[in-house]
């Protein structure tokens, strides 16, 4: 029994170290992720912008584009080589999956204050794609600067 507790504690310690590493390596991205979660879970007040057609979708596209661009920028700052698999998972797939989770939680855990909307997830996916494309362009520009 003691060995099981010790093994669990060791695994937890390793995971916490990795989480701390992510926060130190990607501070802006982590802050943006927290902001997105908070904004997506709180009730939305009525504003004059509420009358603008598709304003909420543009907000979703913008949030995810900025977040994914920030992840790319912080990745490029801390790495000399591009790991395409890690970038695909961390910069595009993880935000898209996070978006889906947020939509499910909005539909089930906000007591009717928010509703899950799959069109929001589509907008988030478009934003993640735009942010990833911006990041790829940024990577190309930086690699040309290093060669010159």
TrEMBL record:
Alphabetized PANTHER family for the sequence: DOMAIN PROTEIN, PUTATIVE (AFU_ORTHOLOGUE AFUA_3G10980)-RELATED
Membrane-spanning intervals of the chain: 21-45, 57-75, 87-106, 118-139
Domain VanZ-like: 55-137
Domain of life of the source: Bacteria
Transmembrane among keywords: yes
Keyword terms of this UniProt record: Membrane, Transmembrane, Transmembrane helix
NCBIfam families assigned to the protein according to its UniProt record, in alphabetical order: vanZ_1
Keyword Ligase: no
Protein name per the record: VanZ-like protein
InterPro entries: VanZ-like (IPR006976)
């Amino acid at each position: 029994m003691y060995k099981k507790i010790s093994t669990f504690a060791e695994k937890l310690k390793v995971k916490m170290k990795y989480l701390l590493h992510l926060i130190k390596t990607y501070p802006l991205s982590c802050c943006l992720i927290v902001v997105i979660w908070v904004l997506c879970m709180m009730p939305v007040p009525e504003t004059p912008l509420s009358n603008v057609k598709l304003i909420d979708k543009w907000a979703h596209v913008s949030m995810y584009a900025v977040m994914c661009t920030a992840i790319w920028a912080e990745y490029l700052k801390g790495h000399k080589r591009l790991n395409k698999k890690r970038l695909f998972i961390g910069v595009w797939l993880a935000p898209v999956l996070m978006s889906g989770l947020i939509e499910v939680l909005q539909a089930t855990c906000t007591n009717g204050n928010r509703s899950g909307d799959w069109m929001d997830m589509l907008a988030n996916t478009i934003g993640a794609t735009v942010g990833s494309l911006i990041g790829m362009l940024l990577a190309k520009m930086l690699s040309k600067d290093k060669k010159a």
